[in-house]
């Protein structure tokens, strides 16, 4: 794993100490728990609280490479954040790879990645890790744009995914067979979906298994009989592009970013960066940047709910 040189670490430490001497807020304890949405939450050992913006003098001296892996829901956003970070720090290179939340967590634990991306909570068996919440997202069902079904009850969703309903006419749709699209093991979206509907993965009678959100969207867009579940943010982006899908309401509330932000929409999850051990150097600077107001526009452009700063 790439590391800053000893000399650069020394310079970085000096600059941070100088900056803290000028800022009144630096006097607080680094182990204070931060509860505001979007800030760091330590699961396991405590780590220093992160500030809203990295010190410009420290940031200007950054160099090296970061590898970030994990959730395909978060990956497009983090790729945009990384591109902006690289623009400001020309000697930094950031490699963003998807593969699922479980991969990102496992890669951080094995030290094959510097930072993981997870679109679900970290499990007790995966501790000790530190999570940094960058946004909130929801999960919604999608069908082909020609499918007249606009809402489903929880009971209907369970019946469809268990195979108890096999034709769309059973839930008010056309006389077409239902094609169930499920997520692959290790995907955060799968785990949130199963938890909400109180299902086990073995309960689902799937016709198609997909990995990333885009694979699910492409499957549904090309098949009037298909149904899948994906990130609300991803759906909103694709619908803006004219992709041939539409979202399905879960009971009373429509799957919108506004309903996710207000807490009305029932299927939501945190979008997390995951790290191990004490943050320092380039890794710390990037996490601080990803949590700062400097990337709020990127978060909102992906139709996620940004933290309040």
Structural commentary:
Strands 1, 2, 3, 4, 5, 6, 7, 8, 9, 10 and 11 form an eleven-stranded mixed β-sheet that branches. This protein has two domains: 6-135 and 270-301, D-Maltodextrin-Binding Protein, domain 2; 138-268, Periplasmic binding protein-like II (D-Maltodextrin-Binding Protein, domain 2, 3-Layer(aba) Sandwich). Helix 3 links the parallel strand 2 (64-70) and strand 3. It has eleven helices and eleven strands. Helices cover 34% and strands 22% of the residues. The two termini are 32 Å apart. It is α/β, with parallel strands linked by helices and 309 residues long.
**Overall average residue pLDDT:** 84
Strand content: 15-25%
Number of helices: 11
CATH architecture of the largest domain: 3-Layer(aba) Sandwich
Helix fraction bin: 25-40%
Q: What structural category arises from helix and sheet content?
A: alpha/beta
Specify the overall morphology: elongated
Order of helices and strands: HEHEHEHEEEHEHEHEHEHEHH
Sheet having the most strands: 11 strands, mixed
The termini sit apart by 32 Å
CATH superfamily of the largest domain: Periplasmic binding protein-like II
- Domain module tally: 2
Instruction: List how many beta strands DSSP finds.
Output: 11
> CATH fold name of the largest domain, please?
D-Maltodextrin-Binding Protein, domain 2
* The CATH class of the largest domain: Alpha Beta
Ranges with pLDDT <50 over ≥5 residues? 1-59
Specify Rg, calculated over alpha carbons: 21 Å
